[in-house]
Design brief:
Blueprint lengths: L2 E5 L8 H14 L4 E5 L5 H5 L11 H7 L8 E2 L5 E4 L8 H5 L8 H6 L8 E5 L6 H9 L2 E7 L8 H14 L5 E10 L4 H14 L3 E7 L2 H5 L7 H4 L4 H31 L1
Parallel strand pairs: 1-5, 1-6, 2-4, 2-5, 6-7, 7-8
Antiparallel strand pairs: 3-4
């Protein structure tokens, strides 16, 4: 069973897609069979991995709305062990089309069933909203990764997101957890950035990843070349940070898995 994480924040410009793309690439580089699912109509995760949004024939839209098997949408990327289920602009209308469909919140979860044995990690890049596309991702996921920008009003909207997660947990996905908050766009020269980190840590404690993702010109440039930071500028500050973040995620998952196995063995 793979780890399935939805990257969610209804606030735009927080580094959500950048985090989804680069964590996926580093997980794959560390031997993890990884699938990145793009359910954002902007399709930025898809273009960041070198896919032309205008040339994509089948996308997650077809999976969610037209019941196309997910395996027919998945594309190989230039990175070994990293696959992509691309998005398309058609997804912009999916919110309306999904309203009348049966099990509208669980369509992605059902679509994932057939491909679960193929992967160790599945990351879902969500749109900057809390609509049906994001609810589908939250229903399909085991955990939520929340990028938080190290700037003023960083906590604005987090309460709404946490409330949405709680509602999904109650009605659709009881096992959903907040896997962690990721501090992005950190600038060590600014006192405000450290204050934001401190404030988020005071609210969420150990749920905040220790890795701080810095502001980085290279991180901004990489998508225009269709490359993750791993291949574009791995030794840049952003490259080093995402390598550390992927390692932190892997180590945390390993520890949690060992604890769960120990509990199962005790109760067996």
């Amino acid at each position: 069973m793979p780890y399935i994480y939805a990257l969610v924040n209804q606030k735009g410009g927080v580094g959500k897609t950048t985090t989804a793309v680069n964590v996926s690439a580093f997980l794959a580089a560390r031997g993890q069979r990884t699938l990145l699912i793009d359910v954002d109509p902007q399709a930025n995760a898809s273009s960041s991995l070198g896919f032309d949004k205008q040339q994509i024939k089948s996308s997650t839209y077809d999976v969610l709305v037209n019941d196309l098997p997910l395996r027919q949408v998945v594309q190989l990327t230039k990175r070994v062990r990293l696959d992509l289920a691309p998005s398309s602009a058609q997804l912009a209308g999916a919110e309306i089309e999904l309203v009348e469909m049966p099990d509208r919140e669980k369509r992605l979860k059902h679509a994932l069933t057939e491909i679960l044995p193929n992967y160790d990690y599945i990351l879902i890049d969500c749109p900057p909203s809390l609509g049906l596309l994001t609810v589908n991702a939250l229903t399909a996921a085991q955990g939520v990764l929340i990028p938080v920008q190290c700037e003023y009003l960083a906590l604005e909207g987090l309460s709404q997101l946490m409330n949405t997660i709680q509602l999904v947990r109650k009605g659709l996905n009881p096992g959903l957890v907040v896997r962690g908050l990721i501090m992005t766009m950190y600038d060590s020269r600014m006192r405000l950035a450290q204050q934001v980190v401190t404030e988020v840590q005071s609210h969420f404690g150990e749920q905040v990843f220790s890795t701080l993702v810095p502001r980085s010109v290279r991180l901004g440039e990489a998508p225009s070349y269709g490359e993750p930071i791993l291949s574009y500028a791995p030794t840049s500050s952003g490259g080093v940070a995402y390598a550390q973040l992927a390692e932190e995620l892997l180590e945390g998952d390993r520890v949690m898995s060992e604890r769960l196995n120990a509990v199962v063995q005790k109760t067996a």
